Amino acid sequence: MKKLIVFTLFLASAFSLSCSGTKSVANKTNANAPEVKKGVAPVADSEAAVIEMENAGAYGTIKIELYSNIAPLMVARFKELAKEGVYDGTTFHRINQSVIQGGDPFSKDPDPNNDGQGKSDKPNVNAEFSDIPYDTGIVGAARGQDNNSANSQFFITLKRETGFDNRYTIFG
Questions:
Q1: Which of 44, 62, 115, 171 fits as disulfide partner to 71, beta carbons 3.0 to 4.6 Å?
Q2: What is the pLDDT of residues 118-136, one digit of tens each?
Q3: Residue whose C-alpha is closest to residue 146's, from 36, 30, 28, 33
Q4: What torsion, rounded to 10 degrees, do the Cα atoms 149, 108, 65, 126 define?
Q5: CB 97 within 8 A of CB 7
Q6: What distance in Å separates the CA atoms of residue 56 and residue 48, rounded to the nearest whole number?
């Protein structure tokens, strides 16, 4: 069942977390693969995303810490689209045992057959991979076959997904 979502951004308390580790290191397994940031701890951005369900009493609210130190391009895009209202009225169009996925502007129209195929009118965002594991509650950028095809869609993991590690941009 789809759940209608409405996005708002609010200022959250800024946390001073120490960030240790190394800078980005190229992925040596594939010369064309994006770099993977290694050993960088996520730091919560000063703004957080709040997903308000159409029926918040029944479905609650989701609060997302955004990690601009891990994925600055995707966090900037996510904030930009939220502030422009692109996410307002969209649905979670994919709900399964692993993830809930949303952020498709096509999910606002009356045709459910095109849900999951849309994106914003902005250019795609390049991959920003990190070695943060895809544990429960991680927010990632959905994309097509091209690593650099993230745009507006995102997913939230409902359980540990080792197959997503180093393959999808984590931004929250």
A1: 171
A2: 999 999 999 999 999 999 9
A3: 33
A4: 10
A5: no
A6: 18
